[in-house]
Amino acid sequence: MRRWGIILMLLAACVMPSTQAMGAAPQVIVCIQCHAAQPARLSDPVTLWQTSIHAEHGITCNACHGGDPMDAANSMDPARGYRGVPAPTSVPALCGGCHMGVTKHYMNSAHGRALGRGGPTCVTCHGSHDITRASLELISKKNCTTCHTFDKALMIRRAMVKTDGMLKAIEKRITILKSQGIDTDPLEKKLFSLRNRFHAMYHSLDVTLIREESAHIQAELEKTSGAGGAGTGYLVGVIAVGWALLAALLFSMIKKNID
Ligand code: HEC
Ligand code: HEC
Ligand code: HEC
Ligand code: HEC
Ligand code: HEC
């Protein structure tokens, strides 16, 4: 009976995502503490932010609004760098402080050129506080037809959908390998830069550029995953090694328990 317990534990370990190492004890951010106790207009940002990708990565209120997150009495003092609520026209520069590649594409696009004249800013599409991981789902009739028709938006979505699917499939396989304790670092590094290049490009709104770059990225991905060749790619090799290791481990555990 015990061996089934062990097998189940091993299988569970295979499907469980690797847990991130916890950093140092979190410091109290006074902005969050005080704002959470304020009326809706001032506390809603806290509630929305709490489940955002920025909260997950420790990007707190002061990253966008300035101020001193450690000193409650002076936190909103301009002398401590407090900037208040950003004007819509200054939003791209604010976000661009960290998202440089995306913002460069955006500034050169029809949307960037229409900034301050009816064009969308970053927060029109992503929200300000409830920002989550971006995906092609954002290109929807709901988000893209308030200012113009949907046909151009649809062309961009169609040009991106195949590469998007390839990236997702490889990411999924890497997660599985990683949970098996296999070193996926070189692969992840490569995927990370390809993924960023691909997702940032959307903001150019340039279908020709997107088609060209997508073809290039697809070729790179096929090399990486071995999908194009007869199973000679790096990923295929790593997967084979991963399953062989797992099988060997399972076998030795079962054998020990039987013996
Ligand atoms: C002790 C309570 C308290 C702390 C600490 C605090 N705030 Fe505020 N905050 C308020 C109140 C009350 C208001 C509304 C009145 C006002 O604008 O001064 C406000 C307003 C704001 C606004 C909206 C301003 C506007 O013009 O509408 C922003 C943005 C803001 N705070 C950000 C921050 C940030 C960032 C921090 C931390 C660096 C912070 N707050 C710390 C109480 C606080
Ligand atoms: C990624 C950048 C970013 C972060 C992080 C962020 N904000 Fe904001 N915040 C904005 C932007 C942009 C606006 C203006 C647009 C809007 O009102 O949505 C804004 C608006 C506000 C307002 C004014 C809301 C209103 O309706 O007048 C308050 C208050 C505020 N933020 C508080 C906070 C607090 C508190 C935190 C931390 C929990 C925080 N923000 C984190 C970008 C950010
Ligand atoms: C202080 C740096 C900083 C600022 C300012 C900032 N971000 Fe971020 N943002 C991050 C980090 C770190 C992440 C998480 C890592 C990643 O995915 O890039 C992130 C993630 C994101 C994501 C999800 C990316 C993905 O992979 O899908 C979006 C969308 C985003 N931010 C939009 C914005 C917008 C819009 C603004 C301005 C209102 C903004 N950010 C301001 C640092 C910042
Ligand atoms: C707040 C208004 C607004 C929203 C929301 C908006 N757009 Fe636009 N968009 C514009 C303006 C303004 C232009 C430039 C004038 C035009 O072409 O109509 C534009 C132009 C475009 C173009 C033409 C680019 C070119 O070079 O010809 C595309 C493609 C586009 N938008 C895609 C999208 C997509 C996809 C979404 C949703 C994710 C979206 N837009 C949401 C305002 C908006
Ligand atoms: C018209 C809507 C729209 C506007 C305006 C917009 N974005 Fe995006 N953004 C998207 C969509 C759609 C995606 C997903 C594209 C994809 O899946 O390839 C995205 C993806 C992203 C990502 C993820 C990129 C990655 O590497 O995974 C970030 C970060 C981001 N946007 C930040 C910004 C910032 C900063 C601005 C302003 C300078 C901005 N966005 C303006 C719609 C928009």
Write up what this structure looks like.
The protein is mostly helical and 259 residues long. It has a domain at 136-259. The protein has 14 helices and no strands. The protein has helices spanning 2-15, 30-35, 40-50, 53-56, 61-65, 91-96, 100-107, 110-113, 122-126, 141-144, 151-179, 185-201, 207-225, 234-258. Helix 1 (2-15) runs antiparallel to helix 14 (234-258), helix 7 runs parallel beside helix 12 (185-201) and helix 12 runs antiparallel to helix 13. Residues 1-23, 227-232 and 252-259 have low confidence and may be disordered. It binds heme C (HEC) (5 copies). One heme C binds at residues 53-54, 57, 59, 63-64, 91, 94-95, 97-99, 122-123, 126, 128, 131, 133-134.
Beta-strand percentage?
under 5%
Chain-averaged pLDDT: 82
Instruction: Return the structural class.
Output: mainly alpha
Quick one: overall form?
A: globular
Order of helices and strands: HHHHHHHHHHHHHH
Number of strand elements:
0
Major sheet description: none
CA radius of gyration: 23 Å
Q: What small molecules are bound in this structure?
A: heme C
Q: What is the number of helical segments per DSSP (H or I, 4+ residues)? A: 14
